[in-house]
Amino acid sequence: MVGTEQGTRARRARTAAALLTVTGLFAAGCTGHGTPVPADDGRGQLHTERPDSSPPDTARPSAKADGPSVLAVKIDNVREARPQTGLDSADVVYAEQVEGGLSRLMAVYATKLPKAVGPVRSARESDLELLRQFDDPTLAFSGAQGKLMPLINRAPLDARTPEKASDAYFRGAGKVVPHNLYLRPKRLVPVTPGAAALTNGFRYGPAPAGGTADTSETVHYPAARFAFTWSQSRKRWLVSMDGAPDVTADGQRLTPATVVVQYVKVRKSAFHDFLGNNTPYTVTVGSGKAKVLRDGRAYDVNWKRAKATDGTEFTTKDGSPMNFAEGQVWVVFAKAS
Hints:
The protein is built from four helices and 23 strands. Helix content is 7%, strand content 32%.
């Protein structure tokens, strides 16, 4: 990780925002269907852009004026959403199970803000627990189930939907609604937060002793599959999803330095999607087992997060801290047996 920007930040009092109505950009970003539609560019002009287009110089400052924290973005991960944009710039990528056994990603940015990120999709209840380990994070998402929005608005985070920050979002070419909503990160977080904002407890450094040689691991969800293959030449893990190599919109292979398969409880939440499917709740507070992949080896470790405001500690069998390799980390939450 790079960057050492630090700064104190005071928590700002918030007034609970009104429920998002299922109209306009929210409807298109969360549950809408159809053909591409133009988006407001923040200056009253409607247009459709390509995801890799540079943001104009008129970007307005975020409402967060008391110091930057991490930016977390909910990323669409169905086949229709791929290839994604800006995912390779994230410091951490979390993968969780959602309705129908599919997967969704949360990308966390601290040391680098790409020009665009997406496609952006809706939030889930367990995101609130996962994000408590960061200090006043900004959460970018397309919307959420109506009854969940009051919980999001009361959470200690800066919730930024297209309705609240229309100038930060745009519709990209080449994909249909709802898989074509993109974010300009610097419209929400104009100052790169820096490595100090990554308060999730991860440690980086030399690999511990032990481990076993391992060049391929696969994680199965009911309707999704992640595979990680070690590349000796790149010294990175090559990501595949649902049997296909995972690349960015500009053709670059996704290559994290460390992969964590974290075994957690996955229970039913109180919420459902518009088809009536129950939303799984991924429990990230507690303790359990994990497998850490780095440098072509696998380490069976323990994880612990005593309370939501704590980061997650990973320790080897002898109780020593588990160091991650420098670079991007993927955390795939898998259901504990």
